[in-house]
Amino acid sequence: MKLPGDMDIGEMMRQAKQMQEDMQREIQRIRVEAGAGGGIVTVTMNGTKELLDIRIDPEAVKGGDVEMLQDLIIAAINEAGRKVDEAAKSKLGANLRGLGLPGDMF
Length: 106
What we know:
The protein is α+β, with helices and mostly antiparallel strands. It has a domain at 31-92: 2-Layer Sandwich (Ybab, Chain: A). The chain contains three helices and five strands; from the N terminus they run ββαβββαα.
């Protein structure tokens, strides 16, 4: 089906689907690292917020302060989630700017 100006809806839909698939692959490739407590706890997360790695400084467990360690783990995971959101938003904005849409939407 053609629209005024020779725009083909079917082709536009195919392109949109391809862009969505490309974006999903890009998001999967995102890797962020975040830490808490000056590096006592460090986590790595991917773009779908799957926790890939967690490192805990052995000195942190020697003190026996389990509650502090739990808080640091939560803080590191939350920070990694924020970093994933920022990275995904940045990638999405870059991809949408490349479409040449009017205005400063992104």
